[in-house]
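Exercise: predict the fold of this chain.
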Amino acid sequence: MSDTSPNLTITAGRVFCVATDLDGPGGVEVRGGKIVASGPNVTRCGDDSLDFRDGLLIPGLVDLHAHPGLPTWRFAIDPDVEILPRGTTTILSQGDAGAETWPIFREKFIEGAQTRVKLAISPSVKGELEDRGVFINLHEVDVEACVSTIEEGGEDIWGLAANLTTKACGDNDPREVMRRTLEIAERTGRPILYGPRREPSDWPLAEQLKLLRPGDVVTYCFHDDAESIIAGGRVVESAWEARERGVLFDVGHGKGTDDMGVGPDAIADGFLPDTISSDVYNNHLGWDPPHDLARTVSRMIAIGVPETEALARATQRPAEVLGLAGQVGTLAPGADGDLTVLRWSDPVHLAMVNGESRSGPCLEPVLTVKAGRIVGR
């Protein structure tokens, strides 16, 4: 069957891609859903060309922490409606489905969505189906069911998601939930997207971090509850040690507000997040301005993350974490034709740091291209 994907050339005042060392005027040419050329020598030509002289053209954003799902699910939103048009073309679902809900999740979102969706599966068989803590019923944390589902799901299931807050676990011991999660992870060779136990302070963060392995990802890394990565204004030694072992740290800014937690202190201490993610879910529906990954990146820049580093941590770096390096998060020829055009707004309030407002330009989505097709404009 011949490929009917349209041909498309996009040029912009600035093309940025850390994977290909592009940063300057130029363009990207897409044919048959794949990038065939990128850089300063790509120019506008013909009716299939679009030009954004004041735009920033980058690979489609990659969000390592989001919540796609059916409308009745606890946190879920429609990724093609709420995420893709806002410039994010690839997402990782943080525990929205478990062994029992995997078949419908695969049908509707892995296979049925335009957005590229990978799953960090919940060890709980129902995932985030019901309006209650995901680990409230310990018998639902079924090791054998989860292992079987991961083996059947193959590459579509990236790894596991374990958020061990009090709300998630109820009266159950988070250590037992983590023990089962680690057993599944070890048996299947999968990483864990880990939400730390942070309140009350009944399990020291240092003990939690010691359980994590190279390639595991700590999300909500800048939370400011009892057990955080900051003590006395400095990053705690256990976080530095975990990073040295290969544990990764992800933002997961589900607050969606100007409260950046301990992020300013961590960044000032030289502890940048490995990946920037939005944790966008149904609580954010109807917000004005919208909560999205582009705005989260803007907030990170406002509190001290260098612009090029922030963009890399929302494109190339999460693509690498997901095992998609070379396919997404890059403008290299041969990569999927997933593109985002952003435009800097006038300076707006983005963050509060030590009681003072941090303002700056905000990245606003202008155009989204998925596999060479315009899906948001």
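Check your answer against the key: The two ends are 29 Å apart (CA to CA).
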